[in-house]
Here is the input.
Amino acid sequence: MTPAEVKRVRIHYRRLPDREQIFDQRVVLARPDVIVTVTDPMRLDSPMLIHGRPALETGSRVVWFTFPGCWHDVGRFHLADGSFTGCYGNVLTPPRILGSVWYTTDLFLDVWLPPGGAASLLDEDELEEALARSHIDAALARRAREEGRRLLDKAAAGEWPPDIVHEWTLERVSSEEA
Here is the structure.
């Protein structure tokens, strides 16, 4: 099955040391350099807050951008009413993409870019704790930090997120669903 033939994917998302979530998402675009997926409306126990502001809540949808071979993906986050809250760079291992089944491991760090704001690095404390507990080795933690720093530098230069993230808005995805 070629990437263009895949309509939905199941993403096995490992969180060290031993937690795994499986996300089922619809594919809206598949190219060799990027695969764009969208979540169904989410169910959350409580809103996800970033810097004290809601980024996701029950009913929210996320448009995800996976770049094969890259050490991060990007999510366009929205509230339940469709309001855009920001771009979320999730530092992770390059996904193993096996048709409609993907595997990746979260590397704790995230980059947040709110509309009109500056990018910030999130969850450094989680990475430090994982390193202290030997849930992640020093080399992989170093690679995660390098990727986080790279994304921050690119955001400061106006080069992140990539143009495709601005092109594939929730509105565009929703209009193609209709």
Q: What stands out?
A: Helices lie at 124-132, 138-156, 163-167, 170-177. The domain at 3-177 is CATH 2.40.380.10 (FomD barrel-like fold).
